[in-house]
């Protein structure tokens, strides 16, 4: 059997009924829409209409908010950092910042800064300069003998 020979079992799919194609088809004339009325005509949109009553989707409370100017960080896990060190892409002796991570191919772009997050184990002694990090990740770096320098927020960031 080949890919071009694959097909459904007989009777598994039902062919589409073509409506409005003559009386003999059984779905001609009114095309299964019944007789007269708004719903028998084209251009109808009354699905959310409740006869003038306040619709359900408007009665329910609104929740949540998407901040339009939220910062997007490039996130790096401890496992990725360790893998880069093991592969020889990152030098543990030199300070590691966003540019070094991009050059090593750990991240594609820095976005609004780099954040170190947990996930994995770090054995290498790294000196990181990042925009932020999770508490467990920073503790893991320091436990391995490294150091994490969190960059100060810019004036734009502090106004938020």
Question: Notable features of this structure?
Answer:
Ribosomal Protein L15, Chain: K, domain 2, three-stranded parallel beta sheet, 11% strand, elongated
Task: Write down the CATH class of the domain at 74-154.
Answer: Alpha Beta
Main beta sheet strand tally, sense and closure: 3 strands, parallel
> Strand-and-helix sequence, N→C?
HEHHEEEHEH
Q: What's the end-to-end separation, in Å? A: 62 Å
Helix run count: 5
User: Which structural category fits the helices and strands?
Assistant: alpha/beta
Kindly report the average pLDDT value. Answer: 90
* Large-scale geometry: elongated
Give the DSSP E fraction (strand runs of 2 or more residues).
5-15%
Which fold does the CATH topology of the domain at 74-154 refer to? Ribosomal Protein L15, Chain: K, domain 2
Q: Helical content, roughly? A: 10-25%
Strand line-up across the major sheet: 1-2-4
User: Count of DSSP E strands?
Assistant: 5
Uncertain stretches of 5 or more adjacent residues: none
Radius of gyration: 31 Å
CATH architecture tag of the domain at 74-154: Ribosomal Protein L15, Chain: K, domain 2
